From TrEMBL:
GO terms for molecular function: ATP binding; protein kinase activity. This is Protein kinase domain-containing protein. InterPro entries: Kinase-like_dom_sf, Leu-rich_rpt, LRR_dom_sf, LRR_N_plant-typ, PRK1-6/SRF4-like, Prot_kinase_dom, Protein_kinase_ATP_BS, Ser-Thr/Tyr_kinase_cat_dom. Residues 288-313, 617-644 are annotated as: Disordered. The lineage of its organism: Eukaryota, Viridiplantae, Streptophyta, Embryophyta, Tracheophyta. It comes from Helianthus annuus (Common sunflower). SUPFAM superfamilies: L domain-like, Protein kinase-like (PK-like). ATP binds at K368. Keywords: ATP-binding, Leucine-rich repeat, Membrane, Nucleotide-binding, Repeat, Transferase, Transmembrane, Transmembrane helix. Signal peptide: none annotated. It is found in: Membrane.
Length: 644
């Protein structure tokens, strides 16, 4: 066999194979490097021992610094190795040329100089996250052709460095909080441009490029004016203002400025008052996040003594903290107790960051900082919480307390000991640490979840809509192996953009057509969850970014259609011969729940009846026998035929 090796354009080698080392050692090193070359382009750092593949060491550091500001568990896991190919969203060809991190729930800030080392970057998209701070400086990214930062929380000015990018074809900055004027964009390369839904001000510059885009590119910026929008610029906007110097206008201008100044002072006073509380939470929780990595690695909690919030709390009048409202009336602890408790971040979900806090009495509670809510008045929020608090069912995670201030909305839940269903199902596979998850407990989970959703559906009113986000990380398992559903009652208060992009129900087949979610979309999510339970496969609804995750409803339908039903079940279940009848019954039910036509799906009360009719086999009679080749599992055993 002849191998043709094309030299990659960006390869640096610095091999330090000692001359006196045995030949065989040198040969094996060279062989490994050769394999790496064939696999990808290699860059060996000139000044360090690490080998980075696909990108330079400087680029790797730049991305790691970016990741540090993001606090995103998924990226923390994905961006680790020295081979760029393993880094989610990063495109490399010896240099980093693309970065795509859309809709990843990133909450964080990017430094102005964050992209200085990514000098070969050609495309970048961070759309639909919650990134805040000022726009970065792009002066070191001359190859940038497409930039999409839409749907974030960037504020401040549009970076003037963007004007000098002569290859820029597409610039999407809509749905941020950008302020100030639009810079003088006139590069001929620019074909797509959108700055709508910001707080930009002043006349749109009169360049042929900016004038060539439709007015929708500029929509919803209250103080932007001039063509191509239909808003006329007043005498104080832009150039015209300076030429108009009549005494009346000057007086008006002075009055305006004075008024603005007073307003600003008032706003600042108000802001500082609110900020005090916000800062306390940030100090308490976010700072821990930053220092947490090491502690987590060692399995330690962060001692509360490292929290500077104790000092600030002492200097702050208590009434400013607001009060936790306890669902059962009697205050069990105070907001101050939460702030002095040691805390651990559990992750960032659709509704905000979740922390486990250990109170002084040794009890753990779960604190959820809500974000991306619809604009709600205090009364609206409080009323909604009362409705959630009234939902009491043994299979729902109990809400203990809640808190409202302008900047901070908190939910405090009971801590559920044994973690979530996702980790129970998928954690530790292939390692000696895994305790098998057998049929009995899985059936109990299917029952518990069905009962919880049925209960919620029976209590629906105009405020409490279906669960909307039923997935395995929202099912918790307590010390008695009981399943408890969390995150209920929040769908109707979360902002529409977030719901549409991230909530499970919005991925149902009917949402794609009718744009509606209903009780039947919960039934569909339940079907998918049961399939995850039965197959042990990761559902794309639980982890959309996992490339091994599958759309379980379609996957199971295909298995039934193509007659490989026997391969559906998780091998951990297949050892239980006595369970097979029940497993098939549950699978049939899940297939019906996943029917593409919502009306054909059963109601939750029907689901509960059917799941409860499945008998848990007597453990003593379970023969631990491998059934993976059992031919009795054919498509004939699947009587439910899904609609195509
Ligand atoms: N009451 C609780 N007890 C123990 N762990 C919890 C509790 N509530 C949430 N968790 C865990 O905290 C982590 C973060 O939860 P969170 O709800 O913020 O995110 P999520 O469930 O991954 O996503 P989503 O917001 O879409 O529901 C998850 O692993 C979840 O299982």
């Amino acid at each position: 066999m002849m191998l043709l090796v094309h030299s990659p354009p960006f390869v640096h080698f610095q091999c330090q194979v000692g001359k006196n080392k045995a030949n065989i050692m040198g040969f094996s090193k060279i062989f490994i490097l050769l394999v790496l070359v064939l696999h990808n382009y290699i860059v060996v750092a000139q000044d360090g021992p690490e080998i980075t593949i696909g990108f330079t060491e400087g680029e790797r550091y730049a991305l790691l610094a970016l990741k540090d500001g993001f606090h995103n568990a998924f990226l923390d896991e994905s961006w680790q190795s020295f081979d760029c190919i393993n880094w989610y969203g990063v495109k490399c060809n010896g240099r980093v040329v693309g970065l795509t991190l859309d809709s990843l729930d990133i909450v964080g800030e990017i430094k102005l100089d964050a992209l200085f080392n990514l000098t070969a970057l050609s495309t970048m998209s961070l759309r639909n996250n919650s990134i805040f701070g000022q726009l970065m400086d792009f002066s070191k990214n001359p190859d940038l052709t497409r930039l999409d930062l839409s749907g974030n929380k960037f504020d401040g000015l549009i970076s003037p460095s963007l004007v000098n990018l002569v290859l820029l074809e597409s610039l999407q900055l809509q749905e941020n909080r950008l302020t100030g004027p639009i810079p003088w964009f006139d590069q001929s390369s620019l074909k797509e441009f959108n700055v709508s839904n910001n707080n930009l001000t002043g006349p749109i510059p009169n360049t042929s490029k900016l004038q060539s885009f439709s007015s929708s590119s500029y929509d919803h910026n209250s103080f932007l004016c001039g063509p191509p929008t239909s808003t006329k610029c007043g005498p104080t906007s832009g150039d015209d203002a300076s030429s108009n110097k009549s005494p009346v206008n000057s007086t008006l201008l002075i009055i305006n400025i004075l008024g603005l100044f007073i307003l600003l002072v008032l706003l600042m006073l108000l802001y500082r008052k609110n900020k005090q509380l916000n800062q306390k939470f940030n100090e308490k929780f976010e700072k821990k996040n930053v220092t947490q990595e090491d502690d987590e690695e060692q399995g330690h909690e962060i001692p509360s003594s490292v929290v500077p919030s104790r000092v600030s709390q002492a200097t702050m009048p208590k009434q400013d903290l607001g009060k936790l409202v306890f669902v059962d009336g009697e205050p069990e602890f105070e907001l101050g107790d939460l702030m002095t408790a040691s805390a651990q971040s559990l992750g960032t979900g659709n509704f905000g960051n979740t922390y486990s806090a250990r109170l002084d009495d040794g009890r753990n509670v779960i604190v959820k900082r809500l974000r991306d809510l619809k604009p709600l008045s205090r009364d609206e929020f409080m009323n909604h919480m009362k409705i959630i608090a009234a939902q009491k069912h043994p299979n729902l995670v109990p809400l203990l307390a809640y808190f409202y201030s302008n900047d901070e909305k908190l939910l405090v839940h009971k801590f559920i000991m044994s973690g979530n269903l996702f980790n129970r199902l998928h954690g530790g596979r292939g390692t000696g640490d895994r305790i098998p998850f057998r049929w009995g407990p899985r059936l109990a989970v299917a029952r518990g979840v069905a009962r919880a959703i049925e209960y919620l559906h029976n209590n629906l009113n105009t405020t409490l809509v279906p669960h909307g986000n039923l997935k395995s990380s929202n099912v918790l398992i307590d010390e008695n192996n009981m399943a408890l559903v969390s995150d209920y009652g929040l769908t109707s208060i979360i902002s529409n953009t977030v719901s549409v992009h991230r909530m499970v129900s919005f991925k149902s087949p009917e949402f794609l057509i009718s744009k509606k979610v209903s009780k039947k979309s919960d039934v569909w999510s339940y079907g998918s969850l049961v399939m995850e339970l039965l197959t042990g496969r990761v559902s794309v609804l639980s982890v959309p970014q996992d490339n091994k995750a599958v759309d379980l409803c379609s996957w199971v339908h295909r298995a039934v259609r193509e007659e490989w039903t026997a391969e559906i079940f998780d091998l951990e279940l297949m050892v239980q011969r006595s369970a097979i009848h029940g497993m098939l019954k549950l699978l049939q039910l899940a297939v019906r729940c996943c029917d593409k036509v919502p009306e054909k799906r059963p109601d939750m009360s029907e689901v509960v009846k059917e799941v409860e009719s499945i008998k848990v086999p007597n453990i003593d009679s379970e023969s631990e026998e491998d059934l993976s080749l059992d031919r009795s599992l054919t498509d004939d055993s699947m009587s439910a035929t899904p609609s195509r």
